[in-house]
Specification:
By secondary structure, the chain is an alpha/beta fold. It is 35% helix and 19% strand.
Length: 303
């Protein structure tokens, strides 16, 4: 049986641990002109930060506001901890000292046991990696890498603006910097032009990378999500022109069912479905019914 991230955190911290998202006020090199403009074709103007506190607030205030978003899930008797997730855009892209200060501020907040940093494989300098590594003495550290696909043709089409080798190199350097850093790879199913073999090859490539670098412990995780269409994106333009058709729920369900057979049980499963912002979701509408989706996936008995 595979291990869910919820159980993984509970084993590490001996209690229920909630991942709460904040905004480090970063951008991306394929948005600011360093590599390209506009970002990936599926990315909204707010990146993946559609549920975040106001980025103008100090880090400690953002953390407290983010805690309130999960407060209704807590019981008064619950022992609880939090992992602060620097989520939207590229959270190692900017002034190293300023970013490091934000990481530290998050770790110093009450009941915070660790941080998770979402970034691009091509935006992890030796300098920022050294600073992140030093945080392992203070708490749990997770780095999340946006790979999405190992099909370079697809990567070019979606305006990813980094290569597979950037990803493999980032994994090696993170692992060499500190084996305590938990690495999570983001994968998207249903990208334009991709068929089943492309998606499964991406999964297999990521698993091989894991085995080649550190298959001695549970230090590697995978997130898989369906590609959904958000209004205001380039992908939405393709969808309206009928040049892109999103996956149906049954299609995605079968893809996940078969993809999980490729993933070793030592790899932590952080996600097998996305959670789009309903206010700007264009398609597919089944993504908006999270309860229905999760209930369907429970029938797989993966965990």
């Amino acid at each position: 049986m595979h291990t869910t991230v919820s159980n993984f955190y509970k084993t590490l911290f001996n209690c229920k641990t909630y991942k709460i998202s904040i905004d480090a006020d970063c951008t991306c090199p394929n948005r600011d002109g360093s590599k390209a403009y506009g970002g990936c074709i599926f990315c909204s103007n707010s990146g993946s930060g559609d549920f975040l506190p106001d980025k103008k607030l100090p880090i400690n205030e953002q953390v407290e506001n983010a805690k309130l978003l999960v407060a209704d899930k807590l019981k008064k008797t619950d022992s609880k901890k939090y992992i602060v997730y620097f989520q939207n855009f590229t959270n190692t892209y900017g002034n190293d000292d300023e970013l490091f200060k934000k990481y530290c501020e998050a770790l110093n907040c009450k009941d915070v046991t660790g941080i998770a940093i979402a970034t691009r494989p091509d935006c992890i300098s030796d300098s920022i990696l050294s600073k992140i590594s030093s945080l392992c003495d203070k708490g749990f550290v997770q780095i999340e890498l946006g790979l999405q696909t190992t099909n370079e043709k697809t990567a070019s089409f979606i305006n990813r603006c980094c290569t597979n080798e950037d990803y493999y190199d980032a994994v090696r350097r993170i692992r060499n910097a500190d084996k305590r850093i938990h690495i999570v790879t983001h994968i998207i199913f249903g990208l334009p032009g991709e068929v089943e073999r492309d998606m499964f090859k991406t999964v297999s490539d990521v698993v091989s990378c894991c085995k080649n670098n550190f298959f001695d412990d549970k230090s590697f995780g995978i997130k898989i999500a369906q590609l959904y269409v958000l209004r205001g994106t380039v992908l939405n333009e393709l969808y309206e022109k009928k040049e892109f058709i999103p996956l149906e729920l049954d299609e995605y369900y079968n893809l996940i069912k078969n993809a999980m057979k490729l993933i070793d049980e030592k790899i932590i499963i952080h996600r097998i479905t996305g959670d789009p912002p309903k206010r700007i979701l264009a398609a597919p509408q089944w993504c908006a019914d999270k309860k229905r989706v999760l209930n369907k996936f429970k029938t797989l008995n993966l965990f």
